[in-house]
Every structure is written in structure tokens, then in C-alpha cells.
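W.,

You were right to be curious about this one. When I first looked at the sequence I had no strong expectations either way, so I just let the prediction run and decided to look at it fresh. Below is the sequence, 333 residues in total, followed by the output.
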Amino acid sequence: MAEYVLALDVGGTKLAAGLLDRAGRLSYRHEMPTLARQGGGPAVLGRLIELSQQTLWAAGFRMLGTSNVWRRGTDGVFAVGLGTGGQVDPISGSVLFANENIPGWTGMPLRQRLEEALGLPADVDNDANCAALAEAHFGAGRGHSIVLCVTVGTGIGGGLVLDGKVYRGARGGALEVGHILVDYQGVPCVCGLRGCLEMYASGPAVLAEFLRRHGEAGLRELIGVAPAEASTRDIVAAARRGVAEAAAVITWTAGFLGLGLASMAHVLDPEVILIAGGMSDVWDLLYPSLLAAFQANSMPPVRATPIQRAALGADAVLLGAGQLAWQRLTRRG
């Protein structure tokens, strides 16, 4: 008999689903667009449930009676785990707060709706927590008991795994590391504060800083793209071509990330720090300045903390969501 859980990932642009076995092997992976602006949160949840059912059906599983198990012969799918952006109540599985990448996602009772629609016990967590859990069990953090994983992409999120389990804090809001203040009078953040790390060290911060320094004319003349079409990828590509102005912005961004990591290390003292997310794809450009800033701003007890690139790539949230479901089943006995 093969045993699986259903793993789900809600992103700003895509929804993903797959089946995860106890060994961490992912199969029957499917995706569909999030289409967040088409109906907002309720419509996205409807598409997620549709994707879940399609994934189970495509793998040959069917719900028989009221068994709370999807069956394919002697094989079974026993639970569902979901990773999503936003702060999640660890008890109810509802979204406590999310930005407007998915309008109306705040307050969505995800665990309740999934259990009603799929007939499976469900667990829900923040996507950065799920990525950290996956890296601790299956990726670059394997073998370490205190793993800090920082996801750097459109935003910055963090997850801390202690002895194989995610630390969530008293209200599910722990490890919002993108909102560590690095300049209390600095750039306004979408969260309402000023000077958050996310505004200096995320992917969009690279493009924003280039524009602050060189304006739209700089995008045309130095990068070779029209302002309306420019993205962080263009700045990175220019840095690789040897455009000094682009490389300087990457160095600036990496320095702020290293500064933020030093603050995290002082508070958490992890065994290892892992960097995940889209910005980890430019690891060769980020790492030297990141490490220099980290070491320059950290005290001796944590200065030698290893900082590594995460290993699991785009499937980290799915793998962590599945592991979340396996842990729920273990707790239930």
C-alpha cells in the first residue's frame, strides 16, 4: 500500500498541487494560474479546490463513502497541506492577514473550506514556513536542528524550524523577517511601516533602487529597456554583462540583506541560514557582498554561522506543505 498526502501551494501568479509520500517524493504535480484579479479570494479558493480534485482524479484516486480517505486500490491519500502567502492562524487555519496580491484573502477560512470540499483533514501555514520545513527535512538544512530559511523574492519571508517543527510564535506571526526595520525613517513599506528590509533587499527593491539612482533615462541608456517593460531580471542581466551601475545596485541590495541576516542571527542563533526564493537564482552576484555585510554587522558568537543557498527551488513550498500534512497525521496518531 502506498500512502500519500495532497500538497498545495498558493502563489500570486500560480497555484500548484502534487502528491507527497512519506519519503518526500513528489508526484502528479499540476499547476494552473491564480488569476487573483478575477474574482479575488473566493474565486482563487474555488480554483484551488478544482485543482486539488483534478490532481487526485488524474492520479486515479476517488473518495469512497465517508471514509475521509481518497482511495486507489490499496493506496490512499490521507490529508492535505497548504502553503500560502500571508499570516496564518495555526489553530484555525484561517488567513490572519495578507496583502492585496490576492484581494480578499485576509480572513479566508482555508482549513475549513478544504476539509469541507475534499473530505480530508487539512493543515495550513505561511508559504515561507513551508519552504523552511521542506529545506529542514529534505534540503540544505537536513541534519541541522535549528534552521533559519529566508525566502527572498517579490517580498521577504522567513521560517524557523526547531528540531523538525516550525516555530510560529504565539499568534502565528513569527518570522516576518521582511519587516525588520533597517531604517526607521526610510522607504515606506506596503505594511504601513517605514524602512522594512523588504523595501531594500527584495527583488523589486533592485529595480526601485536603480530607478532612484538613474531614473527612467538610465533604464533606457544603461540597461537598454523601456521603463514600462523593465524588471529586476533586466538589472541582473546588465550586471552580468558588466554594467557597473547595475552591479552596484545588486551589491547595495545584498548588503542590506546581510545586515538583516545579522540581526536575525543575533536573536535566533541558528545552526545554518538558508536563502531561498527567486533572488537565490543570482547567488553568485549576491553572496560576496551579503557575506561581507553579515560578518561586518554580527557579533563573534554568530559571525561564523554558515549562509547557504537553499536546495529545493520552486517545489519547496509544495514539499513543506506536504510535510506539514504528514506531521498532522502523526500528531493524530
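Here's what jumped out at me. The longest helix spans residues 244-268. And, maybe more interesting for your project: The CA atoms of residues 236 and 282 lie 8 Å apart.

Coffee later to discuss?

I.
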